[in-house]
Amino acid sequence: MLHIKSLSINLGEFSVRDVSLEIRSGEYFIILGPTGAGKTVLLETIAGIHTPELGKIILGDKEITATEPRLRNIGMVYQDYMLFPHLTVGDNIAFGLRQRKMSPSEQHALIEEMSSLLEISHLAKRYPGTLSGGEQQRVALARALVLKPEILLLDEPLSALDGRTRERLRMELSRIRKLTGTTIIQITHYFDDVFALADRIAIMREGRIVQVGETSEVFLHPSDTFVAEFLGIGNIIRGTSAKTGNITQISTHDGTMFFAASGITGDVVATLHAEDVILSKAPFASSARNCLSGTVTEIVPSGSTVQVFLDVGFPLIALLTRESCRELYLEPGSRVYATFKASAVHVIPAALQERGET
Amino acid sequence: MRRFSLALTGIIFLVISVVLLGLILYSPLPVLAQSLTNPEIQFAIMLSLITGVISTILCIVLAIPVAYALARYEFFGKRVVTLALTLPLTLPPLVAGIALLLFFGTTPWGKALENAGFGVIFTPLGIIVAEVFVNIPYMIRILRSAFSTINPRYEYVAKTLGCTDTGAFFQVTLPMARHGLLAGAIITWSKAMGEFGAVLMVAGATTMRTETLPIALYLNISAGNLDLAVAAATILILISLITLCAVEYFDRNVHVF
After folding, report:
1. In the listed set A231, A246, A280, which residue is the last one of a domain according to the structure?
2. So what's the ipTM on this one?
3. Of A173, A191, A190, nearest to A182 (Cα)?
4. In this structure, what DSSP letter does residue A122 have?
5. d(CA B1, CA B4)
6. Pick from A181, A209, A231: which residue ends a domain?
7. Based on the domain organization, do A57 and A157 belong to the same domain?
8. What is the pLDDT of residues A194-249, one digit of tens each?
9. Interchain pair A70, B162: CB under 8 A
10. What spatial distance separates the first Cα and last Cα of chain B, rounded to whole Å?
11. Interface of B with A in 206-245 (CB under 8 A)
12. pTM
């Protein structure tokens, strides 16, 4: 377990202020936040690059606040890979093992194992400059993972990649985590990463952690308007997706079904913006594929809008103007119909959710 | 404009070529060859090479940590320090030379060094001191520029992979700056080979003792031995040419000036 206690550090442009976190071993922890929130500084401080002015970092039962980075056994991977350009891929991966004065045969075995896990064995003789972004990031991951770090820190590892590669590498991260059981702390600005990978998330703003919790908990109950606006999504629905004709049908665990315009099947996480949900007292004919009946459970005004919490078999949030809410005479217990387009539903594979069952 | 600018380019190219070729071709080839075997010229070549190599190595060793500090760290008075370190770039070497002469010749520190056996004034050691003093700013500038283009995160990663601070520097940053280092070394060496003003002031112009190539050129011109002067000049032109080609080659990766 990684225990961060009241950590503060000021690097002028970026700072971390009084951050406390507990990250369990084996956990996939994601940190979200706007640019300049101090996310990278926090990660680098965990790695030992910067010395905190205040606070403590405890890994397992050892305090490592003042320990040199090389003795922490914490790996770090950056968005821009930071592969050493003067070394071949093989030498890049071997870099850490050589520092540990490991015998060449041992080195070789470990490098082989990690290279085949990441499918980069064929690149060993090449130089980083000749690789694609996806390949470079695999090499960077291999270089960090070959040392079997207790914690792997990922600073926006997928941000420099194109959409398809990002998707593939995201699945890879989930696979690696499953295979190695490494604790992973990742910074991202892709919600897809969060839904596909995270056990828990933290939202950072101006150097402080404003909310920590289970992913769905944070999305469903943002602690303040900043978090709500920053996340801006509303609905996260887990279920199983199957193809029916040109679109897919998602069944939630309680048996409710709805449509999504997506080709992804299997265990999925579906997201739906609260403002994309239309409420009505009676079902109406429209081009929207989904019309679910349910009850209002709670109404929360926020500014000029109102968040209406529904139970349609699963919890659903709709964002309405105060006017609409008044005209529909909504109150807790009201029967309503929730209409939304299949194309408004964003579907991503629930890579990590399988883990709980294996 | 096109015709005028191209024509002028051609004319200036011709003038430079004619003037320099005129110097190289001044002595008939056999005479040039004979001049090159002259003991005085050979001494000058050797002395220039030795002092040039030693002063370049000293410049590299001293400039690496300084350039790194300037590229990576913020400290109080950094602007003033940077300015002072850069001043010898624009200072006439003759002025640098006289300053060194006064420092080593008249101050207690200079006297103490001389008593300890490190006489600088009018000695070959003085040549090295003068060359280092005049050239180290170039080395610092080039290396600083090379270091500051290297993202510090390379070192961060190296440290998480098991390197000490020093290890990360020598295994990652320095190899990544190798083009700058080479370009800097070549320029420093070439400038050392051609240094005249500062060397003249500190080490004097003693035949067969502190006689580097430029000093040999100066002494022989003064004595009317035009052939020997031309031989020394020809070698200096050759060194410049090699330097230019080498720097052109490395400059693709480094900002030299």
Report:
1. A231
2. 0.82
3. A173
4. G
5. 5
6. A231
7. yes
8. 888 999 999 999 999 999 999 888 887 777 778 877 887 678 888 999 988 888 99
9. yes
10. 29
11. none
12. 0.81
Same domain, A251 and A288: yes
Q: Are A200 and A27 in contact (CB under 8 A)?
A: yes
Task: Count residue pairs from A and B with Cβ separation < 8 A.
Answer: 61
**Closest approach of chain B CAs to the CA of A352, in angstroms?**
27
φ, ψ of residue B27 in degrees (nearest 5) = -90, 140
Model pLDDT for residues B29-79, shown as the tens digit of each residue: 888 888 888 999 999 999 999 999 999 999 999 999 999 999 999 999 999
A226 and A239 share one domain: no
Q: What's the gap between Cα A118 and its chain centre?
A: 20
Give the count of domains, chain A. Answer: 2
A240 with A225, same domain? no
Closest in A68, A85, A147 to B161, CB measured: A147
Is B102 within 8 Å of chain A by CB?
no
Closest chain A residue to B157, measured at CA: A76
Q: What angle do CA A310, A316, A322 make, to 5 degrees?
A: 65
Quick check: A70 and B159 CB within 8 A?
yes
Q: Are B216 and B48 in contact (CB under 8 A)?
A: no
- CATH for A351: 2.40.50.100
Domain containing residue A85: CATH number: 3.40.50.300
In this structure, the answer to whether residues A57 and A183 fall within a common structural domain is yes
Q: Which residues of B, range 158-177, sit inside 8 Å of A by Cβ?
A: 158-164, 167, 171-172, 175-176
- CA B257 to mean position of chain CA atoms: 14
Q: Which residues, 6 or more positions from A337, have their beta carbon under 8 angstroms from its beta carbon? A: A279, A280, A281, A282, A283, A284, A291, A292, A293, A294
Residue A77 three-state SS? strand
Nearest to B67 by CA among B209, B204, B227, B254: B254
Angle at A21 between CA A17 and CA A24, to 5 degrees: 160
Whether residues A210 and A276 share a domain: the answer is: no
Same domain, A344 and A262: yes
A141 touches chain B (CB under 8 A): no
Q: What is the mean pLDDT of residues B208-223?
A: 93
Residues A258 and A161 in one domain: no
pLDDT tens per residue, range A66-118? 999 999 999 999 999 999 999 999 999 999 999 998 899 999 999 999 999 89
Q: Give the neighbor-by-neighbor strand order of the sheet with A208-214.
A: A74-78, A151-155, A183-187, A28-32, A200-205, A208-214
Q: Which chain A residue has the Cα nearest residue B154?
A: A82
The answer to whether A109 faces chain B, any CB pair under 8 Å, is: no
Do B158 and A68 lie within an 8 Å CB cutoff?
Answer: no
Cβ <8 Å between B161 and A99 = yes
Cβ distance A85 to B176 less than 8 Å, yes or no, reads yes
Classify residue B172 by its DSSP letter: I
* Interface residue A69 vs chain B (CB under 8 A): yes
- Residue A72 gets which letter from DSSP? T
Q: Which domain holds residue A98?
A: 2-231
- Going along chain B from its start, the domains and CATH numbers come out as 32-250 (1.10.3720.10)
